Amino acid sequence: MPETLTATAPKQTNTIVHPHYGCAIGAVYSVVAIPGGVPIANCGPGCADKQYCILSSGNGYQGTIGAGGGAMPSVNIGENEVVFGGAKKLDGLVKSALRIMKGDLFVVVTGCSSELVGDDIGSVVRRYQRAGKPVVYADAAGFKGSNITGHLIVVREIIDQFVGEYRGRKKKGLVNLFFEVPYFNTNWRGDFIEMKRILDGAGFTVNVLFGPGSRGVEEWRDIPKAQFNLVVSPWVGLDTAEHLKEKYKQPYLHIPVIPVGEEATTAFIRQVVEFAGIDPAKSEAFIKQEAHYYYYFLEHFSEFFSEFWFGLPSAFTVASDSATNIAMTKFLADQMGIIPVKQIITDNPPEKYRNAISRLYEDLSEGVSAKAEFIEDGYMIEQEIKNTDFGASVPLILGSTWESDVATELKGLLVKVCTPNTEEVVLNRSYIGYRGALTLIEKVYTAAVGGGS
Amino acid sequence: MAKKRINLKISSVDNREMRLGTITSWDGSASELVEASRYEARGRKKTAGKGRGDCSGCQGSDSGERKVCRLQELKMPFNQQTMCSHAIVACQLGNLTDCILVEHSPIGCSASNPRFNQGFKIGLARRGKPIQSLQVCSTNLKENDMVFGASDRLRQTIRDAHERFTPKAIFVSMSCSTAIIGEDLDSVTAEMEAEIKIPVVPVYCEGFRSKHWSTGFDASQHGVVRQIVNKKPKKQNDLINIVNLWGTDYFTPMLKPLGLRVNYLIDMASFDEMRQASEAAATAAFCHTLGSYMATALEEHYGVPQIDAPQPFGLAGTDDWLRAVAKTVGKGDMIEEHIESEHRRIAPKLAELRKKLSGVKGFVSTGSSYAHAMISVIRDLGVTVDGSIVFHHDPVYDAGHENQDTLGHLVKHTGEVKNFTVSQTQPFQFIGLLRRVNPDFIIIRHNGLAPLAARLGIPSFPMGDEHFPLGYDGLIRTGEALLGIMAKKKFGEVLKRHAEIPYTDWWLSQEDQFILARHPEILDEEPDAGVTTENLVELGADGSSKISEANLRYA
Prior knowledge:
The complex is a heterodimer.
Chain A: E1 16-17, H1 28-32, E2 37-42, H2 47-57, H3 79-84, H4 87-100, E3 105-110, H5 112-117, H6 121-130, E4 135-139, H7 147-163, E5 171-178, H8 188-201, E6 205-207, H9 217-221, E7 226-232, H10 238-248, E8 252-255, H11 262-276, H12 281-307, E9 315-320, H13 322-334, E10 339-345, H14 351-360, E11 372-374, H15 378-386, E12 395-399, H16 404-409, E13 413-416, H17 433-448
Parallel strand pairs in A: 2-3, 3-4, 5-6, 5-7, 7-8, 9-10, 9-12, 10-11, 12-13
Helix pairs in contact in A: 8-17, 11-12
Chain B: H1 16-20, E1 25-28, H2 30-37, H3 39-50, H4 64-69, H5 85-93, E2 100-104, H6 113-126, E3 137-138, H7 143-148, H8 151-165, E4 170-174, H9 176-180, H10 185-196, E5 200-203, H11 215-227, E6 239-244, H12 251-255, E7 261-266, H13 271-275, E8 282-285, H14 288-302, H15 314-328, H16 335-357, E9 361-366, H17 368-380, E10 384-390, H18 406-414, E11 419-423, H19 427-437, E12 441-444, H20 450-455, E13 460-462, H21 471-487, H22 489-498, H23 505-508, H24 515-518, H25 533-539
Parallel strand pairs in B: 2-3, 2-4, 4-5, 6-7, 6-8, 9-10, 9-12, 10-11, 12-13
Antiparallel strand pairs in B: 1-11
């Protein structure tokens, strides 16, 4: 009998092997991503630590800052709290966190145990709110869904409980950005920096809300003053924008595909500028300068691309969250001329968005379309990739560390674009916009010339 | 017949606080903790068949003793995130080569699997086994399952695991949510075992079950001893069980002179390797925090003796451990000569390292008994240690064997550790505890503390390969590695000049890191009132009457 496991035919059920996301309590990391934000994890002892793995350490060894990682206040719910209720222990934690942790905004994020035993978190937190303390609470039990679900819950609760009502004037050219999910999207820090650079360059002032380019809670308080909301994602952030439309009478612009490469990014800028009705002089100058740099590099690259003797990939698959998936697919298909053969969306988008997401793949480029498949179970994803026909090409797989086994089996090239990623150390990296596209080209073709992935 | 210490009749394991009187929050000196632990008295109770090492054994006629034997714990209102027993089970039973772990929980409970996958693959490579990814299966529960019950999901996932991977056994771990909604693991696993005809083992390790994650080790081992090991063992006289984690195979060369083959348990083990645990000549562990439960279970139920010694780290520890192994397997006559020749062999290199490391100050923050071993190791290398954090403290181990008192052994052989703290990966306390001793480096396991030390400019030595410091050669390996670790201080100095500490000046000015346990009322005082000198005079742990510059250095 062999002492290793042998795999057999697949069947989709409730089971998930090799998960590509965490659970709702992972939203504690959305709080960490706000400068001055302090999450208070109202959950079991291991919950936040597990999310740290799939969102940070197991996702490019991003690390964390402020009240993230080991520093995160947590109730560490024990048997006593399960039997007798945990409100009292939470109260002690909030009270001491306000004294011990530096911070401008404290967010109590509640997980499975506290929600199942029915603790009244609102009554604990409202006492601090009445005393003028910057504390909000959000119910993000793991059984409610993925860390994306949790992220959206937390964003909404901060807006409703902390930002509050506003009836003042809007500021032309000020835009709120709803974009990637902090920590979850492996390159989020670099991507937020690139997106802010692009929008600043186009003449906007941006509330990026998360990451090093954010002014922290001050920026959150400015949300209602913005001229409009910009959602750059196939579905994440749409609910938030709808909510803000109702709450602050703010319009929103939805651009479902994160722009990658000069042509897409330039089109993106023009669309946003036109929507806002701001003077295009600044944005056109910016575009001109960016295009100059971009094609300076692309022309150099084209020499390798056109006459490399030893073969380059001509067919690719992407298995990742929807935002990354469509962005990578569109760029590689439309700008690089690589054939999309299997596009697997792993982040379980709500049913109501799935048709719209699928349609994005129908017209990727002139004469090029693909079919989006929604699969969350890593085991099924690996089976699907294994059974994909890559034609004469070496299989190019954009995915996570989980796909490394199938990549090895197919003798393919694996480029890591999503969590988990335990084979790369990621700092300030981006695969989007003008500059990120060049980095992505480097990454893909470094893999192709044998530089590993 | 005396009551057994380990009850294999029931499927769940008593948590550590019940069995051993485990604590997670304490501050004092190592010798004070040795005294307060009363290892010998607790051990006597265990070996006399009273079962537990906590206070329950004192109930009834001698209830006066009850008060005395309870270890005083410092309960803090503030806590930071830690690990849980469920994660521990995932990194044990999820790291088997031909068995599958099913996690009966929402998907977030499986979020550590990328880390455990990496550890598994590295572990397999270290042992020369074929590399494969872990295949932990989650039942992926949603809100409806919480309302209507999730047993059908569990049945489905067990069938999926069976069909997809044809494992030789399936373990099913309980999570907080499934425990709270009352999922009946015993019934479903029994039913599925009958259906698929391989062992299906329930494992009770929900995170709230115990205040310390190490109960997860016990839960894993309980399942293996109860349902996997051979119930009709054929003795293998040259086989020794080593309960361990992912460490490099340094035990084989170490035990070769005694003619022993090593059977590592449980990470990276196969079904057959676990099964033969009951056939071994003896059981030992790299650390008693990890191995005590399994060793005691195998000893009581299958007559496999456990090694009654401290742990094989540092000179005295390794000497005593080898003597005990040799005695247990009937090779006592040759061991003294072997020990002597080993000492001679490493002496020149050891002397050289001691010279290089003299004057260096180290700090150890790891799991409980492993910390005792690490302090011995670096002290043998000439490093000064006057501070340590253990993540919990077991006043006694399951067997109650007197010679396994690792903290007592440490103090007896290498002397006092002046600042000895029990604190479960709490960086907000760590900053003040480091300030007391100002070390040149720290040794760590588990995550959460080293990132803080890094921001203070202190380099860390993550002892990821737990066998690295093992035995005589491990001393030398550790000394050499330390030189490389110390060089990393350059990076620390840069970071220290620019990094921000997430704690308030008020908290950083507190001298006593457990002040909130002793005086929770200070939280109600006005924010500015806490920093006065008077408060510190009154509240300082050692009665010291001034704030030294060093105390405020990080503020």
